[in-house]
Amino acid sequence: MNAQPHAAPAPVGGSLFNATTLVCGVLIAVMVTIILVRLFFGLASTTNVNDGYSWGIWVVVDVFIGSALACGGFCMALLVYIFNKGKYHPLVRPALLGSLFGYTLAGAAITFDLGRWWNFWHIFWPGYFNVNSVMFEVAACITLYIIVMWIEFSPVFLEKMGLRDARRKLEKVLFLFIALGVVLPMMHQASLGTMLVVMGGQVHPLWQTPMQPLIYLLSAITLGYGVILFESCVAASAYRRQIEVSMLNPMARVMLGIIAVFLLVRFTDIAVRGVLGEAFQPTYIALTFWIENACLIAPLLLIGTVAARRNPARLFLAGIAVMLGGILLRLNGFLIAFDTGPGWSYFPSVPELLVTIGIFAAEILGYIIITRRFPVLPREETYALPARS
Amino acid sequence: MHTEVTTTPADENSRRKFLKGCVNAAGAAVTAGTVSSTVEARDTYQRPPEALGLLYDATLCIGCKACVAACKRANDNPAEFSTADKLWDTPLDTSGYTFNIIKMYRSGTMSTKDDESNGYAFMKTSCMHCADPSCVSACPVTAMTKDPRTGIVAYDPEACVGCRYCVVACPFGIPKYQYDSPTGKIGKCELCRHRYQEGHYSACAEVCPTGATLYGRTSDLLIEARRRLALKPGSTTIYPRGNLSGGQDQSYEGYVGKYQQHIYGETEYGGTQVLKLSAVDFEKVGMPYLAPKSSASTSETIQHTLYGGLLMPFAVLGAMTYVARRNVHHEDDASAQEAGKESS
């Protein structure tokens, strides 16, 4: 992780106490309280999950969507280290940081949704784990990836602590972790799609297909780049820094290419399975299907040209559209277009929502603390003043 | 405000490397694909020859719910209330504490039993003990198991992590979780396997007064079901009660119902060990249409194709390691010369 050719990463600096961090702190405290209530009184005390919709937003949003939104790190590693596009190097660390928090919190979130969480270690224990289970593959892969990411990111901490020797030693073998950091997310992001397959006819035919692993993998990659567009714009605005358009512009083009492949696969699959007619029924299912796909078609129109991609506002909007498309793909498959039979319904309770909000608050707070105190974002030579807090 | 990097020879160079990277990665993917194509598709499992199960004949059911009460007692489950006075057990559906229930189909005036229009009918809801269960395939920690001999789908709370993938995966909505408890378990019918040693069999079949729920080997039950479908509606026949594959004879003579010519569970998802007969269309009484190919087999075929023997992951990892090693190293060398150039 030598970023010497570009502006070296440096701490942003500034105070850790401001309105944003304070709000995040309060939201995290609320989340912790609700989690304690859940642990002492059971899932029904805080959530609306039921036997018809046993997976609520703590699984679908915190874990499935949260981890997909955390694909930025893997997507940048793919560009920089696998396709050797060194010019994107300054984006790697901030993206990896976002992924680190996204995944670590997704991993933490699943433990308090587990009904018998004290048995969690069974997932890694020979004699217990079931290699036929898609859930096993996802759980094992995500756990490994979280460990790999902390190792990938550790040069940042070693740098800060002045442990140069340790850092140099680690960097000699870092390529191995970088490779793992590309393969592991490809595996489990694909498997998150495969998780729908065993549910059979309960999942609407527009989302029930053996092609799910490919669709989810492509979607996760588009999300990775979409999130980087979003994050870069937000970080630039919050810290009053320049937007890295020189890097975001060509990266957005890569994203558009993958979106095009995604749409091709998605619609070919639907047509080949002969369920295209389902998309033209007067139902809310068809509506949500089209909103999901419109979110992915929108970036092609918003930032289709080089000139449009120089416009930070358009890049930002395209990033949001891609994120919404990926979020809806997952919400639709696991909740909205999931029908377990008559009589069942689900909408998250307020405590349930507050926990999910708390998780995102924890991600934001972690990002602020680390970028202000550790060398993550590229140093700004021209106006390297720390942002006002 | 924002700057664009113009194309430089260095960029051309990196484009060439980019293409090289693509070729490498594609090569690895193809290799991995060829290796893993030898992994065979996982067929839908069939019932073991000695499989145990139930035959539920809705035309014989009188809706007395003796089976619901017996199931409660056999499994030590608490009563559940759906009425204000809370006088006795009145569950409306199976739950983490109710493993068996009789549901009612109602149409119009409800004047005749087993009539699809202006009639009513009963249907038992409990575990079907699938030949190829989705819950067993879904469970990450082998808490759901299928006995290789009896085929009973059993649950082990000591192994369970409570992820509830079984709840989501089951097409019949059978495994249910105890949401009101901090140490909640999954609850489902296990065909009273814990009572076999005391010489008992499934409590629901033991107490059924009309033989609507009949216990036995599924192969025997299937023959009995076929026999009934071949009978002339309105004629009389002998109906066994209790345990078809052993025990004392409790049979009686009764009238033959107007059966749908379909044994539910004969082929659904590769077959189930609990079989059902009904006079009313199965989908109308809550039994979903299921293809003969199980979703577990589709899911596991995908998993084994992608991850069988970890061949594909290691092939891709090898390729990625090779490429990453070159590229990370390359950056180290190039750092000095590129540092000066990219000052824009």
TrEMBL record, chain A:
Keyword set includes Transferase: no
GO cellular component terms attached to this protein's record: plasma membrane
Pfam families found in the cross-reference section: NrfD
Domain of life, per lineage: Bacteria
Subcellular location: Cell membrane
GO process annotations (BP): anaerobic respiration
Assigned keywords, A-Z: Cell membrane, Membrane, Transmembrane, Transmembrane helix
TM regions (residue ranges): 21-43, 55-83, 95-114, 134-153, 173-199, 214-239, 251-272, 284-303, 315-338, 350-370
Membrane topology: Multi-pass membrane protein
Protein family (similarity comment): Belongs to the NrfD family.
NCBIfam families attached to this UniProt entry: PRK10881.1
Protein name, as recorded: Putative Ni/Fe-hydrogenase 2 b-type cytochrome subunit
Organism: Candidatus Accumulibacter phosphatis
Automatic annotation (TrEMBL), chain B:
Pfam entry (one): Fer4_11
GO CC list: cell envelope
GO terms, molecular function: 4 iron, 4 sulfur cluster binding; metal ion binding
UniProt entry keywords in alphabetical sequence: 4Fe-4S, Iron, Iron-sulfur, Metal-binding, Repeat
4Fe-4S ferredoxin-type domain sequence ranges: 52-81, 118-149, 151-180
Subcellular location field: Cell envelope
Gene3D superfamilies, A to Z: 3.30.70.20
Residue ranges that the Swiss-Prot or TrEMBL entry lists as coiled coil: none
Transmembrane intervals: none
Coarse class of the protein's main subcellular location: other
NCBIfam families: PRK10882.1, TAT_signal_seq
Name recorded for this polypeptide: Formate dehydrogenase-N subunit beta
